[in-house]
Amino acid sequence: MIPLVDVKAQYAPLIPELKERFAEVLDSGRFIFGPEVEAFEREAAAYLGVPHAIGVANGTDALVLSLEAMGVGRGDEVICPSFTFYATAEAIARVGATPVFADIDPVTLNVDPADVAAKVTERTKAIMPVHLFGRPAPLAELAALGVPLLEDAAQAFGAEGIATTGICSTFSFFPTKNLFALGDGGLVACTDDGVAETVRKLRFHGSSDKKTFELIGANSRLDAVQAAALRVFLPHLAGWNASRREGAARYAALGLGDAVELPVDEPGHVYHMYVVRSPGRDRIAATLRDAGVSSAAYYVTPVHLQPAMRFLGWEPGSLPETERAAAENLALPLWGGIGGETQERVVAAVLAAAGVAA
Ligand SMILES: Cc1ncc(COP(=O)(O)O)c(C=O)c1O
């Protein structure tokens, strides 16, 4: 079976180096905060071109702590897409604010700035674009609306032009992400000194000295062991992302577009997922499974129609492009280092599944 993502293929060549780094952490006896975490935070901030990077326990906490540090709470509205992982909107509700869903651009699958603009009210405290599947959201158009941005960059470490517009940008290091940990991990990148200081406090019970507790915070830390792994992986990220981009170009060159609608390329896209579209999605996915090719349909029930969000009152049909993308999208195998032969097998299987002669 060809997997959707082969994370182990990416880290297997680095196992000897990982073992050395883990041995150093074991010898140091420092597992919480300490030099590994601080070094990773410095290296990540430099990579992203931001003044602050703060390690946290996962990408969901990164969102919650960012919203809190940006002063978002009860009575506020935050505009976000519904075609995203549930955590995007869950974080907004967790801080007591109201998620307001904007529809997506059917070409990019990212939030549509025109629909965001139409949904801004005097209660809108932030706009939360998602760089979906590794494609940068339209930050310049969103920033022009004059509302603070929080970028959900969970799927887009290394994408061009991200993380420097928003007050906060959040990352997940879940093992399938472009930059991944060997377990859970997350990061808040921050362009504002005061907000960054608050995130730092919030991740440790609202304290900066472990004696005085100034805020109601959380226990949300990036482990030293995970920071050590991330420091091994970060120098390889550009190569992995370049390989993902080559893989995307190869799919197009192999004629995949004869069977399904391909993602439109743009230079900053790092293809966290390679997502095609077809009205025959479910039939194609079933045939691919029988042919030994993994695929995955994402966000089949978009967030505005999830049971937990029912209290917000969104009805089917209220976000037409989101609902169409939910019915038509299909992610195909892609990872840093995927081979041409594997992709040829995928393309042959998709062409056959769609009834197109190779
Ligand atoms: C868009 C988006 N936001 C937030 C998250 C949450 O990240 P985590 O799983 O690390 O909590 C994810 C990860 O799956 C995601 O894809």
Keywords:
358 residues; alpha/beta; Aspartate Aminotransferase, domain 2; Aspartate Aminotransferase, domain 1; 4-stranded mixed sheet; 3-stranded parallel sheet; binds pyridoxal-5'-phosphate
| Fraction of helical residues | 25-40%
- The CATH class assignment of the largest domain is Alpha Beta
Mean pLDDT: 97
Tell me the CATH architecture of the largest domain. Answer: 3-Layer(aba) Sandwich
Task: Quote the distance from N terminus to C terminus.
Answer: 21 Å
Structural class: alpha/beta
Integer tally of domains: 2
Shape verdict: globular
Give the ordered list of helices and strands.
HHHEHEHEHEHEEEHHEHHEH
Uncertain parts? none
- Total DSSP E strands: 9
Main sheet properties = 4 strands, mixed
Please name the CATH topology of the largest domain.
Answer: Aspartate Aminotransferase, domain 2
**Ligands:** pyridoxal-5'-phosphate
| Helix segment tally | 12
Strand content: 5-15%
- Rounded to the nearest angstrom, the radius of gyration is 21 Å
Main-sheet strand order equals 1-7-6-5
Say which CATH homologous superfamily of the largest domain is assigned: Type I PLP-dependent aspartate aminotransferase-like (Major domain)
